[in-house]
Amino acid sequence: MTQPERSASAAGEARVVALVSSGRHPVSGRAGRAREDARAVEMGLALAGASLHLAHAGDAEDAALPEYLGMFHGLEGAGGPGELSLLPMAAGDDAVPLLANWLEAYGANLVLTGQRAECGEGSGLLPYLLAERLGWAVATGVAAIEHYAGDRVTVLQALPQGQRRRLEVRLPCLLCVDGVAPMPRQSAFGPSRRGRVEAVANVTAEPDTLQAAWQWQPARARPKRLKVVKSTNARDRFKAAAAKSSASGGQVLTDLSPEEAAEKLIDYLRRERILTAPSGE
């Protein structure tokens, strides 16, 4: 793994935090590290070393938390065992205000996290809502950190078909790590036991009123449209399978007000039967 470049002026100013959550093995269902969150911790360790701080909003008995602390093996001599701040909250509470208040009090200026959780809602909205509440920039699909300076960070963003785009983001910011980021290191048993999990006192979680009003129903299987390749040549079939698909029948909308853009988006979702029209319409 290539170590990100870091300027000397940024060495004493970095307060890097990785937000972690509980994951589930896709086959066995066993609790463990979330795949993208583990990559975020790996990226944070490559950038900040033992000074990386972990944070988790949820249950103190989560079995996945020691596995993240076990990733600090080989770094304990430089900064002691890993540390994780636990923000207690119930399943029906809102994690956004809880995390936002703690990050402001901690003084973090760079936050790493996965793009979506593997348990619970898994909507992928938390990074956006958190960045909006803090007034920070947010970058998604981050595959690597190239350079870290005092007031900005240069990252590579993963695009379809293996493409990459270089972004320069001003601090403070929140980076959502993609699944194509470098593989996380193994978790060692000793550091996982020596790591410190400290429950943050004097924090009060707010109930998630929006989630309480949701109506749940089983997801419908949507058929996938297959592209038919008529050529019998193996080379042409491979090119058709690997080529980047181009959208057809789309519409580019520019110079719209937020209200007009929202109406266009809602109309599209209703045409695709992702949203249902209200009963009064």
Automatic annotation (TrEMBL):
Spell out the InterPro entries in the cross-references: ETF_a/b_N (IPR014730), Rossmann-like_a/b/a_fold (IPR014729)
The record's listing under SUPFAM superfamilies reads:
Adenine nucleotide alpha hydrolases-like
What domain of life does the native source organism fall in? Bacteria
Q: Where is the Electron transfer flavoprotein alpha/beta-subunit N-terminal domain?
A: 95-201
Q: What is this protein called?
A: Electron transfer flavoprotein subunit beta
Q: Which UniProt keywords apply?
A: Electron transport, Transport
| UniProt xrefs under Pfam families | ETF
